């Protein structure tokens, strides 16, 4: 599996290449980030790093053997023991179980490194792959919601700080609370 690394300034070039290379692929299942996102990428990334340093969010990249970014997995809006999980995987790495392994690892890190007790997530109804990743990773549907005007589902997963990395990798599931 590619290595999960906490986002740092040295990732800027590889992360921008990842976002540009996969822009159309991502736009098929999530709203496009828009041209301004790419025009101000460096500035935006430095803002995210400041949020990370403040402990408001934790941004991670999945780095392949050649240093290329194959995915992003983030914990956003950290507060009151929880956070919102978000992720995206490169088109060329999709369908290989990478998203499921990364989400499971993030659940472990969220509990054991960041001290979180639950994670929230959401996806559109038409994003079957993301719905499957969340289900395989122990998330339970807790409601319906709109995501950029599209029908979607809200998910919740409780975390157990005692869960071992091996159990997280194997996909040990805890019921959502």
Envelope shape: globular
| N-to-C SSE string, H for helix and E for strand | EHHHHEEEHEHEEH
Second-tier CATH architecture: 3-Layer(aba) Sandwich
* CATH homology group: Gcn5-related N-acetyltransferase (GNAT)
The value of Rg in angstroms is 15 Å
- Beta strands, count: 7
Helical run tally: 7
List low-pLDDT spans: 167-177
Q: Please report the first level of CATH classification, the CATH class.
A: Alpha Beta
N-to-C CA distance: 30 Å
User: Average pLDDT value?
Assistant: 89
The largest sheet, given as strand count, sense and whether it forms a barrel, is: 7 strands, mixed
The proportion of residues forming helix, as a percent range, comes to: 25-40%
> How do the strands line up in the largest sheet?
1-2-3-4-5-7-6
What structural class do the secondary elements suggest? Answer: alpha+beta
CATH topology: Aminopeptidase
Number of domains: 1
Percentage of residues in DSSP E strands: 25-35%
């Amino acid at each position: 599996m590619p290595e999960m690394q906490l986002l740092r300034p040295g990732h800027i070039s590889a992360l921008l290449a990842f976002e540009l290379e996969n822009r159309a692929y991502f736009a098929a299942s999530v709203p496009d980030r828009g041209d301004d996102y790419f025009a101000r990428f460096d500035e935006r990334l430095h803002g995210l790093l400041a949020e990370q340093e403040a402990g408001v969010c934790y941004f991670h990249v999945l780095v392949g053997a050649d240093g290329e970014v194959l995915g992003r997995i983030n914990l956003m809006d950290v507060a009151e023991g929880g956070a919102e999980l978000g992720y995206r995987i490169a088109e060329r790495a999709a369908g290989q179980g990478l998203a499921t392994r990364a989400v499971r690892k993030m659940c472990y890190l969220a509990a054991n490194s960041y001290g979180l007790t639950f994670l929230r997530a959401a996806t559109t109804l038409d994003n079957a792959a993301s719905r499957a990743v969340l289900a395989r990773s122990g998330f339970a549907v807790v409601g319906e919601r709109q995501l950029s005007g599209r029908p979607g589902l809200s998910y919740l997963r409780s975390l157990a700080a005692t869960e071992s990395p091996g159990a997280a990798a194997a996909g040990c599931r805890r019921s959502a609370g």
